Amino acid sequence: MNKKSFWQSGHKPTLFGAFLYFDISFMIWGMIGPLSVVIANDYPMDPLQKANLVALPVLGGSLLRLVLGFMSDYIGPKRTGQIGMLVTFIPLLLGWLWVDSLDQLYMVALLLGVAGASFAAALPLASQWYPKEHQGLAMGIAGAGNSGTVLATLFANRLAQHFGSWEAVFGLAIIPIFVVFILFSIFARNSPHRPAPKRLSQYASVLKQGDAWVFCAFYCVTFGGFVGLSNYLTIFFNTQYGLSAVHAADFATVCVIAGSFFRPVGGFLSDRIGGSRMLMYLYAGAGIMLAGIAFLPPLALVVVLLFVGMMCLGAGNGSVFQLVPQRFGNEIGLMTGIIGAAGGIGGYFLPLILGNLYKLTGSYMPGFICLSLITFCAFALVIVMQLKWRNSWMRPPAPATDEAARRIGELKVDVH
Question: Between these two residues, 140 and 229, which has the higher pLDDT value?
Answer without folding.
Answer: 229
